[in-house]
């Protein structure tokens, strides 16, 4: 017999299975889905049996070494799913198998006991619902009556503990968690509990989607609006909301999306009737019913136009200065930039100090007195004169967390007992003092560190810069950030948003939430973007900019005839230079495809057969411009 085995090692995407023979002793014991030992490049590694065929040609191949566990870990349908996903995301199937497996520790694997799989009867019509909640009490009701085996996916690790608190006491002993930061020992134990159905409520982050469940009765995607449900920083760049559609078909399980701030995509599906809502819509099909009591608690938009802004003075309006001086509770100041100033511009010749590799403005860091790039290792000493014309008329624009901290200390001077902390993803959170009042200055990474019950003042700064980002999801992301604060903050807290663009639809929608959804979706429809068409981005990076640009242009040029043969429902966007164009020591160029088809993944698999092997893919991207 010939065993087609997927080696559990890093492989180019062109390689999926390798052929091996089995000796007479093991021949009667081999099954599809077993974990085995194989010889591979002069060493022993693990692999998974994908298929078994007769050796009709008497081929001479390497022999299987041993079967690690006679009970198959995967069933054939699970293996088919992993290979389908590999074709979609341009990786080897081994990538998804490694994500699905427990730590492969030889000593422990020999003692591993696996129970044989017992399949439940499949549902004829699994449901797809949306659970919209507006309070933590409503949120808790989502977890009141969970089905037999339930997978709960949350965007970030800290939300796992939050979710556990919502589950009834009688279900706490049935919970098991899965996320990347678990130790190997914890992963090994938790994986076995999941595989053997010893615990049937699994709470995890996006990688938990690939675990080889024996059965699934229900999947819940909570905080479904959050972009961290997308694997945006490493390959394969999958979106959880795409993967669950495959899982629903595989396990015939019910699917529930939930959030306090529905994504624009799900708002569209709810109104189309594709997803059933847990609440009744009114006559005009509005999701958000406006209450008079809500008007008093809405965020206050401060119209801020300050002529001294270029000199980095008065970054707070006068009203906010008074609020900051008089607040006796915790304060949270949000903005989406680190550093002191976000750009340095010459008033004489308009020269912008930029990264020579990415072309993006350099950020000023006052503490080291340097200009640096957030995307490359480029730094240079800051100077009071222009690098181009040597004029002294240089000015710094924009502001980051470092500048806000500096200006705040000047404003408050010695008139505060607050502990001022600048939080980003690299901050040591031990600086937080629970016994004192804190002023937290931070990006979105700070949200998980805030004690909302103690926070009486919340300020949104520099929102205009975010609104100006040329990405189709920019407005939606800002909207969800605002709604997250609205959801968590206490009723008597004060929430200010400072802007020079107070007529923007984001602010006009604060008391009329359906407005932002309908306005933005209208723009996407006219541009043919998601959810009206499925978008998939292809990009290529080379250490030479000309080579990268040429490769993308040639591929795009040749794709016209290819797409005509595959589908008439595909259009090309691009080619275009990515932002930043230089990232991780490569220059990046891209093009995107817009697919108007009910089954875009079938088309993507066909298209991928024509894509060169050194390309990268990002289906359902959260950014069209970033590599």
From TrEMBL:
InterPro entries attached here? P-loop_NTPase, PriA_3primeBD, PriA_3primeBD_sf
What organism is this sequence from? Candidatus Magasanikbacteria bacterium CG10_big_fil_rev_8_21_14_0_10_36_16
Alphabetically ordered keywords of this record: ATP-binding, DNA-binding, Nucleotide-binding
Sorted alphabetically, the Gene Ontology BP terms of this entry are: DNA recombination; DNA replication initiation; double-strand break repair
- Which molecular-function annotations from GO does this UniProt entry contain? 3'-5' DNA helicase activity; ATP binding; DNA binding
Q: Which domain of life is it from?
A: Bacteria
One Pfam family from the record: PriA_3primeBD
Q: Which residues form the Primosomal protein N' 3' DNA-binding domain?
A: 14-101
Q: What is this protein called?
A: Primosomal protein N' 3' DNA-binding domain-containing protein
């Amino acid at each position: 017999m010939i065993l087609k085995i997927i080696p559990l090692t890093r492989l180019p995407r062109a390689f999926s299975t390798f052929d091996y023979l089995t000796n007479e002793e093991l021949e009667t014991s081999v099954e599809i889905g077993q974990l085995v030992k194989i010889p591979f490049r002069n060493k022993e590694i693990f692999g998974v049996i994908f298929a078994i065929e007769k050796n009709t040609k008497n081929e001479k191949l390497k022999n299987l070494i041993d079967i690690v566990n006679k009970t198959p870990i995967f069933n054939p349908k699970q293996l088919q799913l992993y290979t389908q996903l590999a074709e979609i995301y341009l990786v080897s199937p081994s990538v998804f198998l490694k994500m699905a497996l427990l730590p492969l520790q030889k000593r422990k694997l020999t003692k591993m006991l696996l129970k044989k799989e017992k399949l439940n009867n499949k549902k004829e019509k699994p449901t797809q619902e949306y659970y919209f909640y507006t309070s933590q009490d409503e949120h808790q009701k989502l977890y009141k009556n969970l089905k037999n085996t339930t997978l709960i996916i949350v965007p970030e690790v800290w939300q796992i503990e939050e979710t556990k608190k919502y589950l009834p006491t009688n279900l706490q002993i049935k919970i098991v968690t899965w996320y990347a930061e678990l130790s190997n020992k914890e992963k090994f134990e938790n994986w076995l509990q999941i595989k053997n159905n010893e615990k049937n409520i699994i709470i995890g982050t996006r990688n938990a989607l690939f675990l080889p469940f024996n059965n699934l009765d229900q999947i819940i995607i909570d905080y479904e609006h959050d972009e961290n449900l997308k694997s945006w920083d490493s390959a394969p760049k999958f979106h959880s909301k795409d993967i669950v559609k495959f899982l629903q078909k595989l396990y015939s399980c019910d699917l529930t999306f939930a959030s306090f701030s529905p994504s624009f995509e799900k708002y569209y599906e709810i109104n189309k009737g594709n997803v059933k809502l847990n609440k009744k819509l009114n006559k005009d099909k509005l999701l958000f019913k406006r209450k008079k009591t809500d008007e008093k608690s809405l965020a206050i938009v401060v119209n801020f136009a300050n002529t001294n802004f270029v000199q980095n003075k008065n970054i707070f309006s006068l009203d906010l200065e008074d609020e900051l001086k008089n607040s006796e509770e915790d304060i949270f100041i949000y903005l989406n930039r680190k550093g002191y100033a976000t750009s340095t511009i010459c008033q004489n010749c308009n020269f912008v100090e930029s990264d020579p590799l990415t072309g993006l403005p350099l950020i000023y860091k006052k503490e080291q007195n340097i200009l640096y790039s957030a995307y490359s290792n480029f730094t240079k000493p800051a100077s009071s004169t222009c690098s181009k014309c040597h004029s002294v008329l240089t000015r710094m624009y924009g502001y980051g967390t470092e500048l806000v901290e500096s200006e705040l200390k000047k404003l408050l001077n010695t008139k505060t007992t607050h502990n001022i902390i600048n939080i980003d993803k690299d901050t040591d959170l031990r600086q937080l003092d629970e016994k004192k009042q804190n002023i937290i200055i931070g990006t979105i990474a700070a949200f998980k560190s805030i004690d909302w019950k103690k926070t009486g003042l919340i300020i949104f700064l520099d929102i205009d810069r975010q609104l100006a980002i040329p990405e189709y999801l920019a407005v939606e992301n800002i909207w969800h950030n605002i709604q997250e604060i609205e959801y968590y903050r206490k009723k008597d807290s004060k929430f200010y948003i400072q802007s020079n663009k107070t007529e923007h639809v984001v602010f006009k929608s604060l008391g009329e939430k359906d407005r932002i959804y309908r306005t933005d979706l209208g723009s996407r429809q006219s541009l043919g973007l998601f959810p009206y068409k499925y978008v998939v981005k292809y990009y290529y990076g080379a250490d030479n900019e000309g080579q990268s640009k040429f490769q993308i242009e040639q591929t795009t040029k040749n794709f016209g005839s290819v797409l005509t043969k595959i589908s008439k429902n595909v259009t090309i966007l691009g080619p275009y230079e990515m932002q930043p164009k230089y990232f991780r020591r490569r220059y990046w160029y891209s093009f995107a495809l817009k697919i108007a088809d009910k089954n875009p993944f079938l088309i993507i698999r066909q298209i991928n057969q024509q894509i060169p092997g050194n390309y990268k893919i990002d289906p359902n991207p959260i950014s069209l411009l970033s590599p």
